[in-house]
Each structure stands twice: as structure tokens, then as C-alpha cells.
Amino acid sequence: MYVCNCNGIRERQVHQAIACGASTAKAVFDHVQCRPQCARCVCDIREMIDEAQVALQQAAE
Ligand code: FES
């Protein structure tokens, strides 16, 4: 499933970027070597980062 239609960034790629330490939407774009265009996907990417951080915190408890 595509998260960013402008750049063809898939959900899997965002998860990989987060696993590699990306903690901001910009870091995710840097990881996949793209730049935001319309930026409609930025909120979705931020939500994915937040969800991953919550999951990590819960796993640590
Ligand atoms: S959907 Fe990601 S920049 Fe447009």
C-alpha cells in the first residue's frame, strides 16, 4: 500500500525507515531519498512514527 502517492513510497518503506531510526517525517523522506511534494502524506507518516514509538514504549514496560 502506498503512503505517499507523489513519490511512490510504500508503507513497508516507511516502516523500514522508522526501524532505522527515522523519528520525523523529514527523516523518513531522507531515508527513502525523496522530498515531499504535496505533503498530504506527512500526517500519515507522523502517525506511523507515533504508533511505532508507542509500541516500542509498551514493549519496554
Ligand atoms: S503524497 Fe506524499 S508528497 Fe504528496
Written overview of the protein:
By secondary structure, this protein is mainly alpha-helical. The chain has a single domain (about 1-60), classed as Orthogonal Bundle (Arc Repressor Mutant, subunit A), CATH 1.10.10. It contains 3 helices and 2 strands. It has a two-stranded antiparallel ribbon with strand order 1-2. It is elongated, with a radius of gyration of 11 Å. The site of FE2/S2 (inorganic) cluster (FES) has 10 residues, from loops.
The major sheet is characterized as: 2 strands, antiparallel
Poorly predicted runs are none
Small-molecule binders here are: FE2/S2 (inorganic) cluster
Radius of gyration: 11 Å
Defining key terms:
single chain; 61 residues; mainly alpha; Arc Repressor Mutant, subunit A; two-stranded antiparallel sheet; 3 helices; 2 strands; 57% helix; elongated; binds FE2/S2 (inorganic) cluster
